[in-house]
Amino acid sequence: MRQGSKNSAFFFFLLIVTAPLICLAQERLARLEKLIDTDRYEEAQQLLPSVRQEYPNHPSVLYLNGLFEQNAEKALQSYGIIIERHQDSAYADKALFRMGQYYYSRGKYDQARKYFSRLTRLYPQSQLRDDAQYYYCQCYLAQGKLDSAKVFFKAFVENAPRSPYVDLAIYDLESSRFAEGSAASAQMGDRLLPASKYRYSIQIGAFGKKENARKVADKLDNAGYNVEVVDKRQEGKKLFLVWLGKFETKSLARNFAEKFHKRFDMDYKIVDRTER
Q1: Is the dihedral of CA 206, 210, 215, 219 positive or negative?
Q2: How many CB atoms neighbour CB 36 within 10 A?
Q3: Distance (Å, rounded) from C-alpha 31 to C-alpha 51?
Q4: When you count CB atoms within 10 A of the terminal residue's CB, does the N or C end of the chain come out lower?
């Protein structure tokens, strides 16, 4: 047999052997992406090592590397690679949002704003767009730049009236940070919104000890959410409830709660604030 025929036979044999392995790797990658899309992160974490062996630089793998990495610097490196090399992937907006959250949680608000702004500018159809816009406003608020915060909060409310974050943005505008010693209503155009109009909140925990409730509340407060600890007596026992946000309608509260649950995987229920 000639040398060329031997080489052809070898490569044909190699193709037969490796093709099923390639197909299996592709199937695992597809399954990993489906798990991410359906927020089944525990299963995704178990599958990640095997997929990472074949696709170490795939954006879905890089995103999960950052998500599960305990070392913040290494996590940022993974997100950074997605942002710079995989701008057209389904994970670019998620990576930008994670970067913004990281800097926000550490009080580096100027850097955080850059990532939130980049997300809204480059990915206007992203499901995280409202989240990024709200955080963008919160950055100014956290820095004490009230005039800028007020401008951007108002623009957000006017331009995204159906966003689940609108009620939180209005609540921020009505807070005492914008009106000295006042819990009065804020006038926005022709719309008067008294504080009593916000009937619903999202309860994400009930604790027997106040310090435990406070730990959860502080975590969410650091992440930019409006949260409060409410004490209430139920069946003869005093409980400390963690309530998130204030909403005008039950449907708005539920819409926000569903997005919150996807991000933090925390149980919740909608509560009527008038029944305290």
Answers
A1: positive
A2: 19
A3: 10
A4: N
Bridge partners, 237 (sequence order): 234
Is the backbone of residue 198 left (phi > 0), alpha (psi -120 to 50) or beta? beta
Instruction: Give the Cα separation of 184 and 67 in Å (integer).
Output: 41
198-275, superfamily in CATH?
Sporulation related repeat (3.30.70.1070)
Task: Report whether 164 contacts 250 (CB < 8 A).
Answer: no
- Beta bridge pairs of residue 192: 187
pLDDT in tens, 160-199: 877 877 777 877 777 645 654 333 333 333 333 344 566 8
Q: How many residues does the chain have?
A: 276
- The span from the first CA to the last CA of the chain, in angstroms, equals 89
Secondary structure letter of residue 16 according to DSSP:
H
pLDDT digits (tens, 9 = 90+) for 207-246: 888 988 888 888 777 666 778 899 988 777 889 999 988 7
- Virtual CA dihedral for 224, 191, 158, 247, nearest 10 degrees? 40
**Structural domain spans, the chain:** 131-195, 198-275
